[in-house]
Amino acid sequence: MEITCLQMDVLISFYIDGELSESLKTRVEEHLRQCPVCRAKLNIIDSLFGDVKKKLCPEEKEVFSTNTHSSKQYQFFKKNLSAYVDNELPEEENVKIRKYTIGNKKARKELEDTYKIRKILKDSFRKTKTESKPDFIKKVMKSTEFDDKTEFEFNPLISVGFAFIMTVILISAIVIYMLSL
């Protein structure tokens, strides 16, 4: 399956960061060989990052380094960040993540951002919950109440079927009773 230019717009940043699987990376590279437009986009992005990296101090260059993205520790950190924030990891894995974030500014920043996002979501949920004054469940139940005039009618086939089943059960009970005498 060939990759489209629209898909390349999404995949190009993952390609630059080295975060694609080998098979997907091969397909992206094949598309780049065949498509001059996407190749030009890649060159522009690479040159922009190159210009930015030249102007950064050594500490800031570490943030843009692809080595921090491809390390096993970073992959472990990224994969387990949400579970860590939600306190769902075993203690051994919590310790690994704590040690990694202590020694890595980018990881600390991501962790801080994750906590900020979590707080914003909780605050937003709390605000929405308190602002919704009318009881939603009562409102729904009230809207589904039936009028007193509404009559429940069964489909005639269901009524006939029920009568037939009751008749068969009654006749079976009489036959069994007669046979037991």
Keywords:
mainly alpha
Order of SSEs: HHHHHHHHHH
- Tell me, what's the shape? elongated
**Which stretches of 5+ consecutive residues score pLDDT under 50?**
none
Strand content: under 5%
Q: Got a strand count?
A: 0
Helix segment tally: 10
The largest sheet is: none
N-end to C-end Cα span: 78 Å
Oligomer: single chain
Structural class: mainly alpha
The residue-averaged pLDDT reads 77
Radius of gyration: 33 Å
Helix content: over 70%
Account of the protein in words:
The protein contains 10 helices and no strands. By secondary structure, it is mostly helical. Among the domains are: 5-61; 71-131. The termini are far apart. Helix content is 81%, strand content 0%.
Gist of the model:
By secondary structure, the protein is mostly helical. The protein is built from ten helices and no strands. Among the domains are: 5-61; 71-131.
Helices, strands, pairings?
Blueprint: H1 5-17, H2 22-34, H3 36-55, H4 58-64, H5 66-70, H6 72-85, H7 91-103, H8 105-131, H9 136-144, H10 156-180
